[in-house]
């Protein structure tokens, strides 16, 4: 469920603690791919929206940069716009990463 609802960092903690992402639910989907089995685990967009601090945000933005054009520009913009409300903008390194990610 954490994958389905974009709790990126919660998923990382669960995996590091030994959670089995291969368990199959009643729909036949493996846990690591979310309830419906459609989650792209390589997509860093959920990491941006789930980042709770500047360090997590830097990792997430670098992941988006590394993905290149795999994530729609509009989706990136929406996620990045929400960062100011959460107090995660202003750090010079974050601002440089935001520019690169877009």
The chain-level structural class is mainly alpha
Helix content: 40-55%
Low-confidence spans: none
Radius of gyration: 14 Å
**Sheet having the most strands:** none
Shape: elongated
- The rounded distance between the terminal residues' Cα atoms is 29 Å
Number of strands: 0
Along the chain, the helix and strand elements come as HHHHH
Number of domains: 2
Integer average pLDDT: 88
Description of the structure:
The structure is a single chain. By secondary structure, this protein is mostly helical. The chain folds into 2 domains: 1-41, no CATH class; 42-102, no CATH class. The protein is 51% helix and 0% strand. Helix 3 runs parallel beside helix 5 (92-101). The chain is elongated. It starts with 7 loop residues before the first helix and ends with a helix. 24% of the residues are buried.
Comma- or semicolon-separated keywords:
51% helix; mainly alpha; 102 residues; 2 domains; elongated; 5 helices
